[in-house]
Amino acid sequence: MNVELVPATRAQKKQQTRAALVEAAWALFRLRGFQGTTVDAIAAAAGVGRRTVFRYFGNKEELFFCDHEARLNHFSVLLLTRLPDEPAVVAVQRAFLAVAETLMAQRGRERIRSQMIQDSDLLMAAERVRDLRWELAVAQALGGDRRARIEAGALWGVVRATLREWFDSDCSEDLVVLAVEAFELLAVGVR
After folding, report:
1. CB-facing half-sphere around the CA of 169: CA atoms within 13 A
2. Residue among 85, 82, 105, 109 nearest 95 (CA)
3. Which residue, among 10, 183, 178, has the nearest Cα to 89 in the 3D structure?
């Protein structure tokens, strides 16, 4: 037995289990809604026990927002690769456009997610907490001081408005095009 293959096999098994949980959860969310889906039902659909679900996710909301951390980390890395003379608005636009492409690729799930969030005070509150983390990532990338926090609030406001337009269109519009238009409006200035 090759000892070097064992850790890779365990890691692969963990990835498979996590993916199975996410797939099962989202199949049930689509079918029953967020409130109508239980952790026990997710575990059963994934072929694992309830305790296994909690080894991978702290609660059902984490399953619902399963891709949040990866997206936020990717966005943060893109912000941190900012060129020394690159304006903050360009750095945020560049990073958001990359995220927008990912969201477009998953627009079916994002449309459903948005509808479920609008129907649940719990999910709205959970989304707000996550949204603030994105704004904080922008502020930190811009230096973290008072000016950076204010600029981050303004820049993230453009992103929020763009996302709201996309969700209001039932995710039918091209989010990347909307984002480019929004940042062009920002460049022109407020009327």
Report:
1. 13
2. 82
3. 183
CATH 1.10.357.10 segments of the chain: 67-188
Q: Which of 139, 190, 134 is nearest to 163 (CA)?
A: 134
State pLDDT tens for residues 20-69. Answer: 999 999 999 999 999 999 999 999 999 999 999 999 999 999 999 999 99
Interatomic CA distance for residues 117 and 31, integer angstroms = 15
Of 110, 69, 31, 67, nearest in space to 42 by CA: 31
Beta strands in 26-153 (DSSP E): none
Q: Measured in whole angstroms, how far is the alpha carbon of residue 102 from the centre of its chain?
A: 9
Rounded CA-CA distance 94/65 in Å is 23
pTM higher than 0.85 for the full model?
A: yes
According to CATH, the superfamily of the domain at 5-59 is: Homeodomain-like (1.10.10.60)
Would you put residue 178 in left (φ > 0), alpha (ψ -120 to 50) or beta?
alpha
What does the alpha-carbon distance between residue 130 and residue 148 come to, in Å, rounded to a whole number?
Answer: 19
The strand ranges marked E within the chain are none
pLDDT band, very low/low/confident/very high, at 82 (cuts 50, 70, 90) = confident
